[in-house]
Amino acid sequence: MSTINPPKALLFDVFGTLVDWRTTVSYTLSTQAAVALNSSSSASLPPAVRLFASTVSWPDFAQEWRDTYKIFTISHSSSHTSKSKHALKSVDQHHYDSLVRLLADHNLTGLWSPDQLHSIARIWHFLDPWSDTSPALHDLSKSFVLCTLSNGNVSMLRDLAAHADLPFSRILSSEHFGAYKPSPLVYNGAAEHLGLRAEQCALVAAHLGDLKAAKECGYQTIY
């Protein structure tokens, strides 16, 4: 980031940059599995499901779940380089669909009911922040316009901001621009939405690919 010509707006990646998805998701999967295995209806679970649910590494499962998200967004970013008339599949829907597929891959189909699956898939709306995230953003909000710029859908980002006390003045999502990062449509669209030139925006992210794509669009970058 330039100190001579500092940006007017800081646009933040969210997952991994501001919130600790790994701890929250791993804990939720593990605790919900324990609830299912110890519930009054657990006797109806197939023995294989009980066995695999007792031995699976839920942190590894959480990483696999996250990896499907990366593949999903990259595949959509490369196919959306110009404005599309077709609505994107939401990250919420992807999280649900990929959770169902992963459970099948691990012989865990039936561990949770459809309603429970929907509830678990929404844990991405309520990820806990890193300990210094909220205080730092409150300080930065005194000098900059703070915005999200995430592949998460709008409802997810609003829930995360409320849950983690993230003082954003704007919630911007790839959903607004018909593509997923690292498509240029997202970075260019966000600057236009804010009424700023690209060089007046800085992307703050913990992901080098995100920063590289933003820089190629003229953004300042902060790692």
How would you describe this structure in keywords?
9 helices; alpha/beta; five-stranded parallel sheet
Task: Give your account of this protein's structure.
The protein is α/β, with parallel strands linked by helices and 223 residues long. Strands 3-2-1-4-5 form a five-stranded parallel sheet, sandwiched between helices. It has helices spanning 21-38, 47-55, 58-78, 91-105, 114-121, 133-140, 154-164, 184-194, 208-216, and strands at residues 9-12, 145-150, 170-173, 201-204, 220-222. The longest helix is centred in the N-terminal third of the chain and has 21 residues, at 58-78. Helix 9 links the parallel strand 4 (201-204) and strand 5. 49% of the residues lie in helices and 9% in strands. It contains nine helices and five strands, in the order E-H-H-H-H-H-H-E-H-E-H-E-H-E.
Flag low-confidence runs: none
List how many beta strands DSSP finds: 5
Radius of gyration, whole Å: 19 Å
Judged by helices, strands and strand pairing, the structural class is alpha/beta
Quick summary of this structure?
The protein is α/β, with parallel strands linked by helices and 223 residues long. It has helices at 21-38, 47-55, 58-78, 91-105, 114-121, 133-140, 154-164, 184-194, 208-216; strands at residues 9-12, 145-150, 170-173, 201-204, 220-222.
